[in-house]
Alpha-galactosidase
Amino acid sequence: MAKISAYFAAACYLYVMSVAVTARVLSVHPYLSGLEKPITNIFDTSNYGILQIGNGLAKTPQMGWNSWNFFACNISEKIFKETADALISTGLAKLGYDYVNIDDCWSELVRDSEGQLVPDSGMFPSGIKALADYVHSKGLKLGIYSDAGTFTCQVHPGSLGHENDDAARFASWGIDYLKYDNCFNLSIKPEERFPPMHDALNATGRTIFYSLCEWGLNDPALWAGKIGNSWRTTGDIKDNWESMTTIADINDKWAAYAGPGGWNDPDMLEVGNGGMTYQEYRAHFSIWALMKAPLLIGCDVRNMSAETLEIISNEEVIAVNQDPLGVQGRKVYAYGPDGCYQVWAGPLSGSRLVVALWNRCSKIATITVNWAALGLESSTIVSVRDLWKVSSVSLFNPICKAFHGRMRGLSIMFPFLSIIYIQLPLE
């Protein structure tokens, strides 16, 4: 996709809508009939989240921070301690961002004489156990990284064939989360390589979140829910609009396979890393919330801008992601040039519906969705709450201007993404 002119950039909005009259649920828009595992209608949750491994984790998508997107291999014990401190001081920890996750490059390049993984002494002079103790003292959790191959992606020792030793090592350090990558895999099927680490983690007796990073190559949504708490459905995200939107589309295919206990993972957040505009980042954060994606911050939270903090700390947007019903919102239909006018929707707890209108064209446009497409009668009247302005809208105008990248709700002229809640009356 071509670089979008700043002229078209606009905000990303979320709305809460309350239905003022009784609404009868109709059949879903025909667009869903072509999906891998279509649901009967957008309020039907019977096909969602039936896989999960039942280790008590991931009742909602995980939230936290990961070092890779900003720091890559330039990591240190100091960075992780300061990041833990920043999650507390900014209030992000209270909002649910409680994982502090180490990514690749943390270990020495070879195992020790006993075949054990060893932290890089220059990066982590106090060791991983001491870092875990520090993070735990803040009320947070520490994550670590390994690989279902002979090496990690940055050619540090992988865990293939060492699953039991490495899992026991992680547990002894007090690790709470494992991201398990897919490099140097000897062409062994992922369905064979990833389960042994699940078994090894369980054998430690410590409850550890298991995040599979298989890149979506062998459709992990079809099998990973039996062994992991989340699974990557895509390749790595890049800090630009085209990458983010493409990944959202790929992740959408697997919406019906996510649910409490196990989530589709379209990769970490790029918000605040500088490759997109403020409005595009709001769209990025909003659509990740709608899709029930893990919310793992990927910027330097020690030095982030006020705008970045505003985006990732919006409690009402986070509530979309952390809704206890746990149903991933999905694309209902698309139209216009190359399908760039899109409507996404999904049910929430409390008889609510979340809807996103996403203008992915490069100019202002009117996006319209009729009630039937959402399973509602045409006579349904709604009230609206704007989750980015954090205020209620007394009347909902079904036609509003939309700019590129904006996130908002029903019938809107904008670009980007918009989300609304519809409150259905209890019968």
Q: What stands out?
A: The chain is about 20% helix and 20% strand.
